[in-house]
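Need residues for this backbone.
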């Protein structure tokens, strides 16, 4: 993972830790961006974070919104 994606991943994890719905949506949007723009290894990391925190619904909703725009 490059430095920019790592920085964004760290930010997303911090937002998830806030346990706020809006912050979780922002975090999932950030994770979706990393997943779409990153490497296969980045995708594995993102999906592991999503699974660990039980955020599949939020993540796929945000991922769909990114594709739609």
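Answer:
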């Amino acid at each position: 993972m490059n430095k920019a994606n790592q920085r964004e991943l760290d930010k997303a994890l911090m937002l998830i830790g806030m346990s706020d719905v809006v912050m979780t949506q922002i975090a999932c949007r950030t994770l979706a961006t990393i997943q779409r723009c990153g490497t296969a290894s980045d995708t594995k990391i993102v999906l592991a974070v999503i699974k660990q925190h039980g955020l599949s619904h939020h993540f796929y909703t945000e991922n769909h919104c990114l594709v739609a725009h």
